[in-house]
Amino acid sequence: MRLRNVKNAKMILEQSANYIKNPAQNKNKWSLFFQNNNPIHLEIGCGKGQYLIKMAETYPHINFIGLEKYESVLVKAIKKEFHLNNLYFLCTDAKNLEDIFGQEINTIYLNFSDPWPKNRHAKRRLTSPQYLEIYEKIFQNNAHLIQKTDNISLFAYSLETLSQHGYQFSKVSLDLANEKIINIETEYENRFKNLGFKINYLEASKELPK
After folding, report:
1. pLDDT computed for residue 98 by the predictor
2. Is position 93 annotated as part of the catalytic site?
3. Average pLDDT, integer, range 156-170
């Protein structure tokens, strides 16, 4: 899908109090940035921000950071009405996570990531071994990852790579709507669920060396 360019997107982002212009400056100092020692949860590919805004409202004792690669998408999140001091957004590629965080993240959310269906693009999938290795360098204690997707091929790929990488699954579902799992929906999820698409869900963790 082609992204629609938003005029002055960068300027709009930088004028927002909830946008972090130079996130690398906070590496190993995110607790000072938030002015507390609450857990930090990161959504990679936060899109228009509905999910994280609702999460931050629901869980005020968790700090949330939304990462989005495209300014024209992230500006739609920034424009939403919210007044929260436990939610911030940044615009960069997930490949840069090691430049932004030390061992400071408690949970990573991967909601409806691009499935990159062609085999030659497998390394771009956010649950590829290349990305899993990056994530493990920024987790504070044990790795904890939650994924939602409507793409069954990506889901099967994620189950395989996570398993091969030593993750244990606490929850796996091929139809999230019919599970007793507390779930806050993304814009995409709400739209496609109403069209009859089943949502796949997993929660996985891994003990990391001290």
Report:
1. 97
2. no
3. 98
